[in-house]
Amino acid sequence: MIQQINATTPIDEARAVLAADFDLKYSKAIETETSPIFEKLKDRIPDIEWPFYAPLIFQINRLKREKNAVILAHNYQTPQIYYGVADVVGDSLQLAVEATRVDADIIVQCGVHFMAETSKLLNPQKTVLIPDSRAGCSLASSITAEDVLAMRAQYPGVPVVTYVNSSAAVKAVTDVCCTSSNALRIVEAVEGDTVMMIPDQYLARNTAKKTKKKIITWAGACEVHETFTAADIAELRAAYPGAKIIAHPECPPEVIDAVDFAGSTSGMIDWVKSEKPAKVVMVTECSMSDNVAAETEGVAFLRGCNICPHMKRINLENILWSLHTGTEEVTIAPELMEPARAAVERMIEMSAPKG
Ligand code: 13P
Ligand code: SF4
């Protein structure tokens, strides 16, 4: 008997375990109940797959109500999670802000581990679950608290701005956090002409181009975005004449220089919805275009994306398992709680609209 359902559990095995406690048959009642979701997804998910997703979506939504739980899902989650079961979707900043407003006993974080830790920091009294705690991030694993303390010793008095894509231990030795949507604002707002901006060397270099401040960084990188090159963008332009190309600021600066717009995941979604280009390539994680396409008419989405293996550890099977069994609960060492939370709260305060 398997102990846990996660992304590497074969689907048949996971369904067999779940079927012991849940009715996973595609009935008429489930078809009717989930038809508004299917309407949104019918161009993104093959018809033949819906009878497998719909019962899981139905059971997750029922269990959520029963347990007073909410699901926070990052923009990189698959359409069946994003449209099927999420209560709140967004980029890292939006999810962090929403986490402070959640009125539920349980938060299920559909995203990566640092996002679940951020939710726990901001909701210490609530149960925060992540369906697979191995959903990591190459940026978060690139730096330790000891590395940050060594940098502080090397550059005494220089403020440390840490990307939220980091562990609670690293946040705890940080002055203030930032996300890709508020990085420039936070760097401009901290005191001094020099700032340490860690651990993403590319976000730091892309931010450095927009500020007069001197930025010291760390050699971390997102494994999904660092592989894009200026040559890839030139190839995309040649393959798709007239298409707009947009990218995430975790890409190298030469990529950002070559695209039509760069912004956080939500920044890119807003840009597509307001600009409505006839054709667009979203140079980021692949689920992004599926999710935006489901609610944007008249825009052709062309492929130029990579898959984040960490984000893709979360699936409907392990979400249902997580809600059902209360696993895997996210905990943070008591001594890290206050200092790490303070760094995130400072960021939220500094990025709130003025006035
Ligand atoms: P956003 O804050 O833009 O959603 O980015 C998070 C992330 O992990 C991108 O790779
Ligand atoms: Fe981390 Fe990159 Fe995946 Fe975002 S896309 S979670 S930065 S590895």
TrEMBL record:
- What EC number(s) would the UniProt record show? 2.5.1.72
Any GO CC annotation of this UniProt entry: cytosol
The family database entries (InterPro entries) matched by this protein are listed as: NadA, NadA_sf, Quinolinate_synth_type2
**Coiled-coil regions, chain positions:** none
Which GO biological process categories is it annotated with?
'de novo' NAD+ biosynthetic process from L-aspartate
Q: How is the cofactor bound?
A: Binds 1 [4Fe-4S] cluster per subunit.
Any keyword Cytoplasm?
A: yes
Pathway given for this chain reads: Cofactor biosynthesis; NAD(+) biosynthesis; quinolinate from iminoaspartate: step 1/1
Q: Which reactions appear under catalytic activity for this entry? A: iminosuccinate + dihydroxyacetone phosphate = quinolinate + phosphate + 2 H2O + H(+)
Question: Where does it live in the cell?
Answer: Cytoplasm
Name what cofactor the protein needs. Answer: [4Fe-4S] cluster
Q: Which residues bind [4Fe-4S] cluster?
A: 137, 222, 308
Molecular function terms from GO: 4 iron, 4 sulfur cluster binding; metal ion binding; quinolinate synthetase A activity
Protein residues bound to iminosuccinate: 74, 92, 163-165, 180, 248-250, 265
- Keyword set, alphabetical order: 4Fe-4S, Cytoplasm, Iron, Iron-sulfur, Metal-binding, Pyridine nucleotide biosynthesis, Transferase
Describe the family membership recorded for this protein in Swiss-Prot or TrEMBL.
Belongs to the quinolinate synthase family. Type 2 subfamily.
Among HAMAP family, the record links this protein to:
NadA_type2 (MF_00568)
The function of this protein is:
Catalyzes the condensation of iminoaspartate with dihydroxyacetone phosphate to form quinolinate.
List the PANTHER family: QUINOLINATE SYNTHASE, CHLOROPLASTIC, QUINOLINATE SYNTHETASE A
What is the name of this protein? Answer: Quinolinate synthase
Organism per entry: Pelagibacterium lacus
